[in-house]
Structures are given as C-alpha cells and as structure tokens.
Amino acid sequence: MTTVDQLEGPQKVTWCTGCGNYGILAALKKAVLQLDIPVHNLVISSGIGCSGKAPHYIGGLNSFHNLHGRPIPVATGIHMANKDLNVIVHTGDGDCLGEGLGHFVHAARRNVNIAVFIHNNGVMGLTKGQFSPAAPRGYVSNTSPPPPGAPMDPANPVALAIAAGATYVARGFSGDQKVLVKLMVEAVKHRGFAVVDILQPCVTWNRQLTWKFYNEHTYSLQDNRHDTSNRLSALEKALVNEGKIPIGVFYRIDAPDLVANMFLPEAVPLKDHTTSLKDVQQIIDDLMI
Ligand SMILES: Cc1ncc(C[n+]2csc(CCOP(=O)(O)OP(=O)(O)O)c2C)c(N)n1
Ligand code: SF4
Ligand SMILES: [Mg+2]
After folding, report:
1. Is 95 close to ligand 1, i.e. is its CB under 6 Å away?
2. Is the CB–ligand 1 distance for residue 94 below 6 Å?
3. Does ligand 1 come within 6 angstroms of the Cβ of 167?
4. How many domains are there within the chain?
5. What CATH number corresponds to the domain at position 195?
6. Which of 194, 216, 256, 280 is the most buried (most CB within 10 A)?
7. Residue 265 within any structural domain of the chain
8. 193 falls within a domain
9. How much distance in Å is there from the Cα of 2 to the middle of ligand 3?
10. What is the pLDDT of residues 192-220, one digit of tens each?
C-alpha cells in the first residue's frame, strides 16, 4: 500500500505562496493514495510551465518532464509501449491549449487511454504572466496592453474536449479538494481519454481569476441533476455562460479506446520488443531510392 511518506517530492517547491498549484498537488497526492494502483505503475508526463513542475514535487512514481506543448504525445507513447502503466498528464493552459492544442484534439479523437489534468490559470505563469489562450477577454498584461487587454474570448477546454471525442470530461477547482480528488480518481480509472480542466488561481499575475472570484462564481453540476451521458447537454453546459462556472463531471461514456481498435502484439508488449540494428538498417536500405 502506498504511504504519504513515499509521495514526498524530491525537490523543494518553488511555486509562489498562495498559488493554486498547491491545491492541485495536494489533490493529486490524495488521489494517488485512494487509487488502488502500485505507484510504480503510475507515470506523470508534464510540459513546460509552473504546472510542468508538478512531478518534481511528488515522489514514488515515475515521471517525464518534457517539452512545451508535448506532454500528451509523450504520454501516448508511454501508454502504447506499456499498457500496464496509468499515465497522467500535467499541463498548463498555455502548454495544452496553445502549443499543444493539436495533440489535445487528436488524442481526444483517438480516445487514448490517458488522464489529462490542465492547470488552468488563464496565464503563462512561468514566463511572467503573458495572456494565454485561456485568458479572459480584457486581461491586461505586457503582451495584451489596454485597451482592450486580451482582445478575444478564452479557449474552452471542456467544450473542446467534448467536441473532439474525449470520453470523460470534467472541471475541478483547486480550492475544492473533495471534488477535485474525486474527479482525479475517476479520470485515472476511466478507460479512454479523460480530461479534468482545473481552475487554478495564479496569485502573482492573474488579478481577474482570483480565489475570491472562483469561490463566488462556481457551482456544482452534480447538485443540479446534469445528465453526464448526454453529449449535447454536456456541450451546452460547457458553452452557456450564465455568469457562473459549472464544476463537476460534464460528460462520461464508455467507448472503445485507441488500442482496442488496433492490432498490437498482445503477447509481446512494445516495451519488450528487441530491436535488431541489422533489421532497422535493412528497412532504411529498402526505402532508399
Ligand atoms: C517550444 C517552446 N516555446 C515556448 C517556450 C516558452 N514557454 C515556457 S513556459 C511557457 C508558457 C507556460 O504557460 P502555461 O502552460 O499556461 O503554464 P503555467 O506557467 O501558467 O503553469 C512558454 C511560452 C518554451 N519553453 N518552449
Ligand atoms: S507565477 Fe502564478 S502559476 Fe506560477 S507559481 Fe506563481 S502564482 Fe503559481
Ligand atoms: Mg497557465
């Protein structure tokens, strides 16, 4: 059984005091303790940003802190090579919805069996608060000076995920641990592409999306009898802006995941394949004109 001590991270945390990332890390640790999965079978893949540092601050499991915008393809590769592993992506809103958006949409369409946790603070935190694809209209920064501030509406990861084909789509808030832990556990257990958009105040740069704002403007979908199997209704909940932000599960269905529809040599997982350099050379030679 996994213990709290095992999850103690190897590095000193460098996030700003009061940052919403602390709530995400705390929820992740609680979720890992609740999941009945040996920690060595859990892998985190993260991109670049304050969010991308999450795996440095949790111990026991495997992790790969990779390139900006690329944690989803890396996670897909890990999953395809060894299906015994449960792969979790920690990505920022800039990482996932900017540079990595194509990967996000196609992994959802393919229903890759991984869980994606988006640290959504509406800014590029690490690089000093530039407006991100999820920044609210009017957000003021060095790259979006007033007037008008950020001159367009933010990308909506929940609506994008539902439209693209994800089979588990939820939104959490780093200030609501009880719900966030539940969503993380469900996302990891779900077979297929699972997304949790996590509202996460960046206290240093984003003065619009604050703790106070989220505490006053969020409500529970599940307390409002939402039918999670209805895709259109899920999309409507994701798109309609009534001045309040829904938290909870928008959409959840069972559908064949990517590997269910592919021919893979079950007897010998990719991780156990041996590669003969001679054979590789032969393939290259055959391709040469
Ligand atoms: C290929 C590449 N492009 C751009 C950058 C610069 N860069 C580093 S982090 C970052 C933005 C991170 O924003 P976000 O994903 O929202 O993470 P946060 O810091 O807010 O958690 C950018 C643009 C980079 N490191 N690599
Ligand atoms: S810059 Fe923002 S997101 Fe990054 S650690 Fe500080 S408060 Fe958190
Ligand atoms: Mg961000």
Report:
1. yes
2. yes
3. no
4. 1
5. 3.40.50.970
6. 194
7. no
8. yes
9. 30
10. 999 999 999 999 999 999 999 999 999 99
